[in-house]
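Researcher: Here's a chain I'd like modeled. Treat it as a single chain, no partners, no ligands.
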Amino acid sequence: MINTKQIGYLALTLVQILFGINFIASKYLLNLIHPIVWAHIRFSISFILLGIFACLFHLKKHPPLNLSFIAPLIPLSLLSFHVGQTLFLKGLELTTTTNAAIISTTIPIFTVIVVVFFKEEKFTLIKGIGFVMAFIGVLTLRKVENFNLSNHQLLGDIYVLMASICYALFIAFGKKFLEKYDNLWVTVWLLGISSLTMLPFSYFYWTTYNLPLMDAKFILSAAYCIVGATILTYFLNNYALSKLKSSQVAFFIYLQPVVVSLIAFFFLKETISMRTMGAITCIFCGQALVLINLKKLHERKSH
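Model: Modeled as a single isolated chain. Structure tokens:
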């Protein structure tokens, strides 16, 4: 029988598939629409759709609207959606997808630093070796030699780095909150608060901006980013965060470049080189070291 931890692994794997495709869809949309306007639209529509679904079909009772529930939601919402995603989208607009993808691989590193510093998790040699192996594999797969620190792209790179730090903090500090409250209702509120807090920032752009022509490609890309890369990904990610360690959730981000490579192979008819195979092997070996090590630690504690 599949246990909750295995379901969490499956959820995280699906998240990386959805996020991997999101790089392509978001880059296309940001050529047509301002990142702050798009972020506000994305969060607002996601909040409405998920809120309606929760009210009509979700069986679990809504958490009490007291200070212990509302107060932590505000900083978590800012980290995960408002500040984090706005910085990422603005950075993606100014830099290349290669730079953004490489910089985003720092999320697991920042997450581990935070959880170890606050003594939420222990850092071990085997876990460290696993992280290094996976990180090297990701940099190899992302073709780190193409990383370009030009003056034009530097600001975008900084934005993506700040977004990575925000998301790492959300993963590190959001775990206990998501263990305590229902995941679906929390995700609804995270989106709703972000939509509300973004209104003053996006108001100026709304008054001076005209939406582009909404052809089929635009609508499909926008629908995917809202349903696939926002509602599903954050719901699944928050579920996994309530069941697994913060470092495990962050570590699965290293699967994103693997997903992109496989998509390119099966759907874009790109070849998989020896470099790609070696990099993917390195990533999976590193992941195996981290997960096996964590399992052994869990078994030792139970005896």
